[in-house]
Amino acid sequence: MKYCFNCGKKAPQKARVCKHCGAKVEDIDKVGNTRVQKGIDGKYRWAYEVNLYTNYAVLVDVIKVMFISFGIVFAFIFLLALFEGDITLDWLKSMGTGILIGAGGLLVLCYLGYMLWSVVNGGKYLAMFTMDESGVTHSQHPRHTERAKKLGMITALVGLLARNPTTAGAGLLSASRTDMSSDFSCVRHVKAVRRQNLIKVNERFGKNRVFVADSDFDFVYDFIRNRCPLAK
Asked: Under 8 Å CB-to-CB from 231, ≥6 apart: which residues?
């Protein structure tokens, strides 16, 4: 896919310059990582290619989301049993065993699912970023978007057939989410993870992951950090 980092428009595969602004277009399928560039509209744009086999930032986020969902389900079961007065020592032991088995199985499924997704995507995840004074947006490459939708719908179907609402919900979420955007005025936490070329930008109810090459890491981190008045 060819893309103009000057104005943010997509271009035909055979194009050499952007028909909207006249700037040179880049074939991001071949380029992979690009330097941060400031466009004519004042927005900064770049692309970053994550090696899924060596950078586990995506896997960690998947595991966190799945275990939060898993915890909510068991908390609901516990509160229901507490309300009905069914809690006994044997019940607690059974519950504990179920949690351990379920957590172990979920961890294995997360890892296998991640590896399958990595293989399907050739071991690489390509994202495009747009940043200005008000926020930053993380957009999946179109090829990842289509594959994520298909895998997400398959996951949701498997979850429904297995009567597992957590798996079904996770599948529907992954099928529908293609972009992550952060409003700097709402960001509560900014954290740099240099070894993964990652900047975590978290709002109260939303998380964004910004990947950037070493050469521009400090610039992007400082830019974001200095524009988030509520960030710790």
From this structure: 187, 188, 189, 190, 225
Tokens 């908390």 belong to residue: 75
pLDDT digits (tens, 9 = 90+) for 110-155: 788 788 878 877 888 888 999 999 999 998 876 655 555 555 554 5
Residue with tokens 């992007």: 220
Q: Is the dihedral of CA 107, 113, 115, 121 positive or negative?
A: negative
Q: How far apart are CA 218 and CA 134, in angstroms?
A: 19
Predicted confidence (pLDDT) at residue 12 exceeds the cutoff of 80: yes
Q: Is the pTM of this model over 0.70?
A: yes
